[in-house]
């Protein structure tokens, strides 16, 4: 097993914790902007969403892959060594596990929120 | 390796093994007391210490709360019976506008900041936050702006367009200064709020006690970190929007005038892009108080610490995807409504998670009954009800029915009073001993609770039904026979019962307490650091800055209080007679610097007064005196920076105790000033992005944007400006490098060149729209181009001022090759100027070409 010195602070980052919610935010904005601009500029008299629904599908697959990768990496950090929850020891290991677990939980939430957004494209077919 | 053996191994730095001699301790305490003494006489008002400024701040916010509450009661009197004439329609409009605005901008947001300013350093075992004078500046801005705004209603001159100020109502149909007061006054207060956010973020990340790793920080700090970060991204859209609306009101630039290419809907986007996250900016720090109270009275650590972190961070993010749910009835495409409806439902998940964690902690612990717990229970009950109606109105189809009715009034009061007012009153009873060493009355607290809880529900529960029966919001009266009478009368009675409850709390706080004995130390037997002080406490914050090994050190670290008290940890002394605290790393909290903190000063108050002069005089369109006031403010701020920041220490290192020597001066990313600049510039960049968003918003709503008839700004001048500003940025970078290398001559030349290039670049970007004859009053296109150019030119001008400051600083010997904080921070500012200039040029010169 790795020892404490193998987990120096400088290799950790708070940014990893918020990668998944950031992916959700980008996905959400892309879906919204694509739909809004399409409906305002290009939908034409048919008012159909046309390619927007495919675009949302592609965004969603890409976002979910990103969230899954980040979440999996977080989960592995959470399971590092033999530490158990609540990860409250004053050690680099528990700090490492805590950041991993936070990443994992936020990834799960981001995945659910991304799917919620994607579902809209299943039910709505036009710009009205 | 198991968790327990890790914990045993973790006590890396031990406190002094032996108690320092009595005489030594006395001497240390004497010096600390002298350094942290509160100024007396009229100099009292120059205090900058968090425990004093924080209390002023909280007291002022609470006074505004009472003022807003009185306005609410006036409204309830007016609505008690049909066809009432107690208030005229005109006065009623002012009353509901000021009520909403005061509660949001002068109570809910400032009280979060003020409570955090008091308690954050104490929870972090810090002597103060890193920028005490900035907190004081924020307070003075707040009180000045707040009194000005609230006072306007006494002169019948208050804003009357609702707390959301929708144009065209506020741009075309409301002459007088009311709306200007709102736009300028709140912009001023928002600047103060962003300053506070900078302070709180840097405080949480960089001023923790040694050993308090990121997995050990009190939950309150997580919530405050998230809320403060949200302020950075939520407030700038409103500042940008206010700027557009004020430009339209004062100078007739048609940003929201549909006749000249503008669009009122843009305001709604910008406003709610602020307005919805703001609800969570209010809610999170309040629920954070509950996250501190519950473990104390359950007598055990919180259950699901990481889950609560998830809830705080997750809510912080998702709350930015909700803004359009305030605009469900504006005719946006169904798919947009669907997306925002989905996010509005998703935000209920993290919100629910934390409530389950609280309930689990209570279930797993042994509950001790108390007044703070009573208010906590009330808060959770009310908030859950508000949350449930929130899930209802988040569905667009339901919202179509409930929109603009009293149902929404009921919903938002359940959320805000349950999510913020009750937790804050709980916190008031809980934390009060830390303010003056005495507990508030248990008996009065219980009576107040029942009045408040019962009164609240009697007032607001019927409003759901009033709303479902169709009574609209913001009407000053209603005719008989529509079925509203009884419900409204019940609400009015309830509002007064609630008012009695709040009056009892107020009395409990202000009543003389000479005969009330001091509370015992840590009266609730809590586990976190803010409960270290004696009753009454000393001004120094913490006697010695402890090494932290656990989430609840008072419960989990043996002899902890004794060791802190006897000065066995870090910084037990103030040998040099300076205010000091420790700066640590962001993740593992390793000590890296002993930070000297500034002491009492009137400068923040004078800076606030002169800065306020600009906004207040601007309200009355007195632009020349306003600009003079602004120039004076800039001078004051220059003086403030000159004498109070990046001060050269008398020695390089200081022994902070326990065998640790730390530098007294750090520059660049290691210094707190650099972090503050970075965070501040993120907020400024966000405002700029909102302006760019506006440009493209106009493009989406117009078939031809930029219009065919547009004559400018051309390509040459913007590109020249971009080149000059990028060159200035490059010269700034070189100046920093040459300063470090101690090539003094090269440094001066580079910095002078940078200054000249910045001024030339600023002029060139304005030359574009000027020389191509763009008239900002004619159409929204020239107006938005002008605004982007002015925004960039202002950045260049401020950047040039900073160049001048660094030149003067090095000439005066305030800055040297090694002591170069100013140069690093100015370079950082210039990274943002370069980015802003690049984007502006690409948009105003590039986009018309693409099109």
What's the helix and strand layout?
The complex is a heterodimer of chains A (128) and B (851).
Chain A: H1 19-42, H2 51-78, H3 92-123
Helix pairs in contact in A: 1-2, 1-3, 2-3
Chain B: H1 3-10, H2 22-35, H3 50-80, H4 89-123, H5 132-151, H6 169-172, H7 178-206, H8 219-251, H9 264-298, H10 305-318, H11 334-346, H12 348-364, H13 371-393, H14 396-402, H15 406-436, H16 442-468, H17 485-510, H18 553-556, H19 560-565, E1 579-584, E2 591-597, H20 603-619, H21 623-644, E3 653-657, E4 660-663, H22 672-701, H23 716-740, H24 744-771, H25 780-811, H26 821-850
What is the strand tally of chain A? 0
Class of secondary structure makeup of chain A: mainly alpha
Number of helices of chain A: 3
Order of helices and strands of chain B: HHHHHHHHHHHHHHHHHHHEEHHEEHHHHH
Outline of chain A, from the CA principal axes? elongated
Shape estimate of chain B: globular
Distance between the termini of chain B: 63 Å
Summary keywords:
heterodimer, A: mainly alpha, elongated, B: mainly alpha, 26 helices, 4 strands, globular, disordered N terminus
């Amino acid at each position: 097993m790795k020892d404490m010195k193998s987990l120096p602070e400088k290799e950790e980052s708070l940014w990893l914790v918020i990668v998944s919610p950031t992916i959700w935010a980008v996905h959400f904005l892309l879906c919204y902007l694509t739909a809004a601009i399409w409906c305002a500029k290009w939908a034409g008299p048919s008012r159909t969403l046309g390619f927007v629904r495919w675009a949302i599908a592609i965004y969603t697959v890409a976002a979910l892959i990103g969230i899954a990768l980040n979440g999996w990496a977080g989960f592995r950090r959470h399971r590092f060594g033999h530490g158990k929850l609540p990860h409250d020891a004053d050690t680099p290991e528990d700090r490492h596990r805590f950041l991993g677990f936070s990443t994992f939980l936020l990834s799960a939430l981001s995945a659910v929120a991304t799917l919620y957004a994607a579902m809209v494209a299943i039910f709505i077919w036009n710009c009205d | 390796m198991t968790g327990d053996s890790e914990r045993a191994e973790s006590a890396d730095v031990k406190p002094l093994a032996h108690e320092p001699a009595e005489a030594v301790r006395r001497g240390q305490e004497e010096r600390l007391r002298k350094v942290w003494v509160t100024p007396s006489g009229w100099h009292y008002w120059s205090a900058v210490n968090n425990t004093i400024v924080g209390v002023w701040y909280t007291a002022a916010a609470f006074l505004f709360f009472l003022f807003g509450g009185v306005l609410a009661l006036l409204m309830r009197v007016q609505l008690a019976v049909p066809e009432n004439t107690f208030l005229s329609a005109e006065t009623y409009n002012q009353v509901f506008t000021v009520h909403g605005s005061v509660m949001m901008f002068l109570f809910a947001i400032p009280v979060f900041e003020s409570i955090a300013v008091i308690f954050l350093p104490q929870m972090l075992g810090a002597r103060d936050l890193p920028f005490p004078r900035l907190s004081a500046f924020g307070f003075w801005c707040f009180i000045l702006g707040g009194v000005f705004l609230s006072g306007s209603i006494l002169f019948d001159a208050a804003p009357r367009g609702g707390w959301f100020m929708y144009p065209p109502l506020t741009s075309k149909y409301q002459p007088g200064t009311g709306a200007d007061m709102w736009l300028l006054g709140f912009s001023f207060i928002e600047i103060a709020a962003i300053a506070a956010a900078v302070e709180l973020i840097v405080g949480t990340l960089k001023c923790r006690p040694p050993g308090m790793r990121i997995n050990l920080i009190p939950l309150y700090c997580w919530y405050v970190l998230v809320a403060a970060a949200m302020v950075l991204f939520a407030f700038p859209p409103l500042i940008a929007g206010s700027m557009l609306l004020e430009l339209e009101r004062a100078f007739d630039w048609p940003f929201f005038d549909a006749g000249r290419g503008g669009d009122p809907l843009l305001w709604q986007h910008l406003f709610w892009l602020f307005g919805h996250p703001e609800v969570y900016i209010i809610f999170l720090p309040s629920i954070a108080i509950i996250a501190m109270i519950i473990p104390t009275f359950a007598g055990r650590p919180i259950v699901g610490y990481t889950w609560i972190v998830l809830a705080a961070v997750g809510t912080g993010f998702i709350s930015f995807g909700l803004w359009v749910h305030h605009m469900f009835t504006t005719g946006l495409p169904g798919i947009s409504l669907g997306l925002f409806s989905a996010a509005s439902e998703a935000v209920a998940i993290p919100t629910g998670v934390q409530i389950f964690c609280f309930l689990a902690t209570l279930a797993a612990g042994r509950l001790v009954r108390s007044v703070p717990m009573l208010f906590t229970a009330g808060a959770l009950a009310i908030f859950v009800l508000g949350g449930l109606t929130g899930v209802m109105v988040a569905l667009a189809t339901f919202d179509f029915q409930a929109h603009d009715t009293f149902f929404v009034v009921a919903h938002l009061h359940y959320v805000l009073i349950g999510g913020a007012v009750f937790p804050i009153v709980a916190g008031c009873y809980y934390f009060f001993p830390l303010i003056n060493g005495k507990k508030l009355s248990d008996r009065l607290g219980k009576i107040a609770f029942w009045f408040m809880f019962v009164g609240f529900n009697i007032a607001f529960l019927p409003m759901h039904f009033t709303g479902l029966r169709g009574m609209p919001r913001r009407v000053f009266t209603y005719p008989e026979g529509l079925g509203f009478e009884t419900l409204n009368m019940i609400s009015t009675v309830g509002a007064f019962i609630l008012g009695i409850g709040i009056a009892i709390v107020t009395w409990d706080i202000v009543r003389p307490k000479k005969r009330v004995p001091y509370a015992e130390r840590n009266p609730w037997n809590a586990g976190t650091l803010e409960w270290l002080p004696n009753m009454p406490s000393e001004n120094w914050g913490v006697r010695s800055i402890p090494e932290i090994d656990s989430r609840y050190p008072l419960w989990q670290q043996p002899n902890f209080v004794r060791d802190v008290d006897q000065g066995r940890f870090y910084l037990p002394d103030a040998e040099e007679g300076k205010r000091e605290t420790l700066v640590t790393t962001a993740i593992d909290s390793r000590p890296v610097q002993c930070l000297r903190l500034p002491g009492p000063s009137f400068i923040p108050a004078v800076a606030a007064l002169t800065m306020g002069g600009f906004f207040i005089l601007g309200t009355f369109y007195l632009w020349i005196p306003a600009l003079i006031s602004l120039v004076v403010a800039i001078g004051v701020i220059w003086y403030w920076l000159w004498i109070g920041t990046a001060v050269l220490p008398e020695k390089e290192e200081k022994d902070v105790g326990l065998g640790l020597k730390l530098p007294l001066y750090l520059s660049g990313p290691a210094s707190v000033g650099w972090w503050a600049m970075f965070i501040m510039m993120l907020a400024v960049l966000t405002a700029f992005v909102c302006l760019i968003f506006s440009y493209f918003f106009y493009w989406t709503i117009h078939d031809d944007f930029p219009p065919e008839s547009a004559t400018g700004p051309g390509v040459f001048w913007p590109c020249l400006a971009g080149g000059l500003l990028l060159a200035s940025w490059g010269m700034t970078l070189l100046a920093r490098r040459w300063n470090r290398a101690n090539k003094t001559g090269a440094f001066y030349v580079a910095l002078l060149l940078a200054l000249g290039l910045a001024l030339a670049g600023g002029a060139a970007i304005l030359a574009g729209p000027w020389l191509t004859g763009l008239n900002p009053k004619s159409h929204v296109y020239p107006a938005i181009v002008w605004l982007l150019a002015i925004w960039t030119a202002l950045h260049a001008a401020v950047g040039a001022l900073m160049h001048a400051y660094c030149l003067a600083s090095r000439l005066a010997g305030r800055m040297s090759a090694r002591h170069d904080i100013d140069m690093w921070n100015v370079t950082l500012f210039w990274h943002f100027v370069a980015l802003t200039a690049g984007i502006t040029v690409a948009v105003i010169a590039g986009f018309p070409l693409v099109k």
